[in-house]
């Protein structure tokens, strides 16, 4: 028996076998969505709106489509000034590779499969640095099949978090290298942090505020460096963080500094107040079903992490697994509300909306602890430990699996089918990307309702792309391109106001045929549509894409970060 187990361990530890197993595992766990398409997840309507437009504009040559012209039934959305683009770049490339033949739900299933496989391979690479090959393969398999990982795919539709799963192992590896002063560690951590920022901003915040500091403390306890060495380690990590921020500045700066032009402030109140989602106050949860899922997962993970610490107590060469088990417990304690002041409005974590987002790094930390804590050899004791881990996770898996299965049943409900049809025709988008204050008047914290969107878009459904106010005072012709820019021709009988059928955002300007500045575009009416005034007579204008200066500043900082990265790479190569 032991010989057979060792043969299996040796086989799955081989590189080709590990890759094959991880690819098959990724395809297996996402198989239903590859065949049936993704079910109606919490974000299904938004994912459809975003991936369809992003992929179409990407294929047309617009590599980063920040403005989505078809959202809100053609009123437009600046979604990708604020939402991280990385998973949608992957979706756009997959759409190109499949010649645009896949239905959107199946494309999203394929995206989930690719991200799951990438996460398994990244976890394998991370664990293989300090553990035997078979343990690295096991870590990749556990990570791919982690319950909240699958819940994100099948129930929440959280594409950004799925991408973050794939990047987290790279961040941890880069942080370890930077802390220990290994060659190229600063560059690897900086690049990984940039990738994480471009994948999911909330998980990046958790990593910066909690995970990296905990990893740094673990380094101090394990290595006990002198003060000067500890200071140098802190400087290296700080430099990596600055490099990561610089590389991702073209996204991060606009996302943070343009929030006054949308209704983002509404997304931290009421339903989205993180203090309502703490485990220490279950009576306040707006969604009791989510409490069942998160509560069962948190309990299972706490038992597993505490069990790992107990098993490894006094063990030699077990600092790393103890560290990651402890990090998992710290994250679970913060998520539960053991330190409630961390969720007050002044805290950076208050921007997370949902404390259970911490389950993403919790699963990473726990899988790392389990994989590194197993003995190097593969025997009956090891097999027994693995069985114990699986049994400890069984309740959470059963609960999560049952809820995921119901998602496909929900798709058959008439109300859901009606909402889905409205989402397709009206291009539902997220309320937080409406003009300031509009989300509050619509009652954004009441959840997704087709009639709410209908009340928003119905007054403009039959309108032309532009019209005059008062009506009949001018004829207007607007020919927009993919970015919403284009030519505007106006023939007015008197001075009048021209209304564009799009929400106002500071993304365009008007100029005349000679390139001189034209009328100023400003918000108009209760819905904040874009408008400008023209004199009597004929006016020919050009609507020009002209985003705020912060976008150019972000691009300049990213270019500088890239040049620094390139320079450091050249220096490393010369020193080799």
Automatic annotation (TrEMBL):
Q: Where are the transmembrane segments?
A: 80-99, 106-127, 187-212, 233-257, 289-312, 324-343, 355-374, 386-405, 550-570
**This protein's UniProt keywords:** Membrane, Transmembrane, Transmembrane helix
Task: State what protein this is by name.
Answer: Membrane protein 6-pyruvoyl-tetrahydropterin synthase-related domain-containing protein
């Amino acid at each position: 028996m032991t010989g057979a187990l060792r043969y299996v361990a040796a086989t799955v530890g081989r590189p080709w076998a590990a890759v094959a197993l991880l690819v098959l595992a990724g395809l297996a766990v996402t198989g239903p969505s590859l065949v049936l398409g993704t079910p109606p997840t919490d974000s299904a309507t938004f994912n459809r709106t975003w991936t369809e437009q992003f992929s179409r504009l990407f294929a047309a040559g617009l590599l980063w489509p920040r403005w989505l012209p078809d959202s809100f039934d053609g009123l437009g959305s600046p979604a990708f000034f604020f939402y991280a683009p990385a998973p949608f770049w992957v979706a756009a490339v997959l759409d190109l590779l499949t010649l645009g033949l896949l239905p959107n739900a199946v494309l999203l299933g394929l995206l989930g499969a690719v991200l799951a496989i990438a996460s398994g391979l990244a976890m394998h690479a991370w664990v293989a640095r300090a553990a035997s090959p078979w343990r690295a393969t096991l870590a990749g398999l556990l990570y791919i099949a982690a319950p909240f990982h699958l819940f994100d795919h099948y129930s929440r539709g959280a594409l950004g978090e799925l991408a973050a799963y794939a990047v987290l192992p790279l961040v941890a590896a880069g942080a370890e290298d930077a802390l220990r002063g290994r060659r190229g560690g600063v560059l690897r951590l900086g690049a990984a942090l940039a990738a994480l920022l471009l994948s999911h901003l909330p998980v990046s915040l958790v990593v910066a505020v909690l995970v990296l500091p905990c990893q740094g403390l673990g380094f101090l306890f394990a290595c006990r460096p002198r003060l000067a060495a500890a200071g140098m380690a802190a400087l290296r990590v700080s430099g990596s963080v600055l490099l990561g921020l610089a590389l991702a500045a073209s996204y991060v700066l606009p996302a943070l500094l343009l929030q006054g032009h949308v209704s983002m402030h509404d997304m931290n109140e009421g339903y989205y107040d993180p203090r309502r989602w703490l485990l220490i106050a279950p009576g306040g949860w707006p969604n009791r079903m989510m409490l069942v899922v998160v509560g069962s997962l948190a309990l299972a993970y706490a038992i597993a992490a505490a069990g790992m610490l107990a098993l490894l107590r006094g063990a030699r060469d077990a600092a790393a697994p103890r560290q990651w088990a402890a990090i998992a417990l710290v994250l679970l304690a913060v998520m539960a509300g053991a330190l409630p002041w961390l969720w007050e409005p002044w805290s950076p974590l208050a921007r997370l909306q949902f404390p259970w987002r911490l389950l993403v790094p919790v699963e990473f930390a726990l899988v790392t602890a389990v994989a590194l804590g197993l003995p190097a050899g593969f025997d009956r004791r090891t097999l027994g430990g693995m069985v114990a881990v699986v049994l400890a996770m069984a309740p959470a898996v059963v609960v999560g699996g049952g809820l995921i299965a119901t998602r496909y049943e929900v798709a058959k409900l008439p109300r859901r089918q009606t909402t889905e049809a409205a989402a397709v025709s009206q291009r539902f988008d997220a309320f937080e990307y409406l003009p300031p204050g509009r989300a509050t008047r619509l009652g954004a914290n009441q959840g997704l309702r087709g009639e709410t969107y209908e009340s928003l878009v119905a007054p403009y459904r039959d309108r032309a792309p532009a019209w005059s106010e008062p009506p009949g005072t001018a004829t207007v012709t607007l020919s927009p391109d993919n970015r919403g820019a284009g030519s505007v021709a106006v023939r007015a009988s008197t001075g009048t106001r021209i209304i564009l059928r799009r929400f106002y955002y500071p993304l365009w300007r008007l100029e005349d045929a000679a390139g001189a500045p034209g009328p100023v575009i400003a918000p108009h009416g209760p819905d904040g549509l874009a408008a400008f005034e023209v004199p009597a007579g004929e006016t020919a204008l050009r609507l020009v894409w002209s985003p705020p200066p912060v976008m150019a500043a972000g691009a300049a900082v990213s270019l500088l970060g890239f040049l620094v990265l390139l320079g450091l790479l050249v220096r490393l190569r010369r020193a080799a």
